[in-house]
Write a structure and sequence with these properties.
Immunoglobulin-like; hydrolase; 8 strands; 169 residues; mainly beta; RNA helicase
C-alpha cells in the first residue's frame, strides 16, 4: 500500500540577513529596480558578468542582502539613494521585453512588478485583436477602417421572400 501523506513542511534555513522588497519595471531599453529600504546611506551594490546583481547593507543592526541573476544580460548600471529607496537603472543588451526579472521561473516573494511605473506606448491606439502593420490590408475604398467589418442582414431583407401557396392535405 502506498503512503499518501504529504512530506512535512520544512522552513528555509535560518539566515543571518534579511531580504529587502524590490519593485521593478521595464521599457524597451531599460530596467528600473527600486529596493525598498528607507534612509540607507552606506550600501554595496555590484553588477557581475552583466547579469548578477549583489546588494548588501547594514541598517538598524540588521544586515540586508540580495543576490539576483537577471533574465538576460545588461550593458550598464546606474544607482541612486534619494531617501525612501535605492533606485537602480539598467540598460538592456537586447531591446526585448523580459517576461520576468530573474532567470529562475519560480516566483520570488520579495520581487514585485511596479505597475505604477509600467511603460505604456502612446504611439497610436490599438484596437482589439489588431493585426500587425505588415498584415493589414490597405483600404482602397476610402474607408478609414473605423467602421465595423461586417454587414448586418435579417430575414426581412431577403431577396428570396416569396409567398408560397399553402399545401392542403
Amino acid at each position: 500500500m502506498q503512503n499518501r501523506e504529504l512530506p512535512s513542511i520544512t522552513a528555509a534555513p535560518a539566515g543571518d540577513f534579511y531580504t529587502p522588497e524590490i519593485y521593478w519595471s521595464q521599457t524597451e531599453s531599460t530596467i528600473r529596480i527600486s529596493i525598498r529600504l528607507t534612509d540607507v546611506e552606506d550600501y554595496k551594490l555590484t553588477l557581475t558578468k552583466g547579469r548578477i546583481l549583489n546588494f548588501r547593507t547594514d541598517k538598524d543592526e540588521k544586515t540586508y542582502s540580495l543576490k539576483l541573476m537577471f533574465y538576460d544580460t545588461v550593458q550598464s548600471m546606474q544607482h541612486t539613494s534619494p531617501g525612501p529607496d535605492i533606485r537602480i537603472t539598467l540598460v538592456k543588451t537586447k531591446p526585448i521585453d523580459w517576461p520576468r526579472l530573474i532567470l529562475a521561473k519560480q516566483r520570488a516573494r520579495n520581487i514585485h512588478y511596479d505597475l505604477a511605473n509600467m511603460a505604456v506606448a502612446d504611439d497610436e491606439p490599438k484596437r482589439f485583436l489588431q493585426l500587425p502593420k505588415e498584415l493589414q490590408d490597405v483600404d482602397s475604398d476610402g474607408d478609414d477602417g473605423e467602421g465595423p467589418m461586417y454587414h448586418v442582414t435579417s430575414d426581412l431583407d431577403s431577396d428570396f421572400d416569396v409567398d408560397l401557396p399553402h399545401d392542403s392535405d
